[in-house]
Each structure stands twice: as C-alpha cells, then as structure tokens.
Amino acid sequence: MDSLILCKFLRGVFADFYTEASDMLRKVTGWDVTAGELRETARRIVAAKREVNLLAGWTRRGGYAAGTFLIRRSRAILPLR
Q1: CA–CA distances in Å: residue 22 to residues 7, 28, 38, 50, 80
Q2: Which end of the chain has fewer CB atoms within 10 angstroms, the N or the C?
Q3: Which residue stretches of the chain are H helix?
Q4: Domains of the chain, residue spans
C-alpha cells in the first residue's frame, strides 16, 4: 500500500487487493499492470527494504546494536575509510 501511496486506513476494504490496486493503477497511470505483477513488485520492495535494514545493522530482535546507529548507517550509505 505504501508504494502505491494509498492510505493505510484502507486495509481490509478491498475484496481482492492486488486485482483492484492494479485496476486503479491502470486507470490513474495508463500502465498495463496485472495483479500478479503488482504482487511480485510488492514482494521485491519488501525484500529490498529488509536488505537495506540488515546492511544498516538492524536485527530481528528489534533495532540497532547499541551505539552503532550513526556509524553503521553512514557506512551503509557511504563507506568510511
């Protein structure tokens, strides 16, 4: 939903989210996107977000290691030498 810039309060409103979202996207942009393509794009976006978070030092246990937020973040964006 975030990537389509839809309000999160719309969760649960759609009977078939990907089909209806692809129809909305087609009407607004003219792009011929199928529900399957939209679902795959969503999967890739989530995977990319996870990868960025891991590179920045996030762990599954909840957050950054203490004291490393700025150091790890800056190295993930621009490696320090």
Answers
A1: 16, 10, 7, 24, 42
A2: C
A3: 17-29, 35-55, 69-77
A4: 2-77
